[in-house]
Design goal:
The protein has about 180 residues and is α+β, with helices and mostly antiparallel strands. It has seven helices and five strands.
Length: about 180
């Protein structure tokens, strides 16, 4: 047996057969699901089971504050998406003339960020940004964040292979979606 730097044995469990490994993993998932229902209750357990909710967060989640989101059209689109990318990092180079007014045609700008949520469908994609600002004015969100989402759109359009045809902010203070103009 190899020894780790901390002095404990470096043991690796390997199943006898791949079938046994699948069986054990299935049992663990079933157990985890039952435990989630017992500990967290209905909706929270379902979110935990679907790996959409961290177990530490499940105990302190205010379901009444989240319920409008889970009953709204954005949640339905999330469930219908072919692929859901959460906290998706990106980095891309875009022509400076598209980003900075008056920039030279040859220069480029490196754009990087992390998209809260990217929903990928068969023929298009949508970028969603969650906002916890306290403003109750939808125009505030459009003014403050439209440029950010429009840059994200350019970056992900190059990466995904399908057009990004919707930019959405979900403002938790308003408990509503705010559509951002594409340009």
């Amino acid at each position: 047996m190899k020894q780790k730097k901390n002095g404990r044995p470096d043991t690796v469990w390997r199943p006898v057969t791949p079938g046994l490994d699948r069986h054990i993993r299935r049992r663990v998932r079933v157990f985890a699901g039952c435990l989630a229902v017992l500990c967290f209750g209905g909706l929270t357990a379902r979110l935990f089971w679907l790996q959409l909710l961290d177990p530490d967060l499940a105990g302190v989640l205010d379901l009444e504050a989240v319920r409008p989101f889970l009953q709204g059209p954005l949640w339905r689109r999330i469930r219908q998406a072919k692929q859901v990318l959460r906290e998706e990092p990106f980095i891309t180079s875009l022509p400076a003339s598209e980003i900075v007014p008056g920039a030279s045609g040859q220069a480029s700008v490196l754009v990087q960020g992390i998209a809260d949520l990217v929903l990928v469908f068969e023929d298009h994609a949508e970028i969603v940004d969650y906002k916890t600002d306290r403003s109750r004015d939808p125009e505030y969100y459009k003014k403050e964040y439209a440029g950010q989402l429009q840059l994200y759109r350019r970056a992900f359009a190059l990466r995904l292979g399908v057009p990004v045809n919707r930019l959405t902010i979900y403002a938790f203070s308003l408990q509503q979606e705010i559509d951002i103009p594409l340009q």
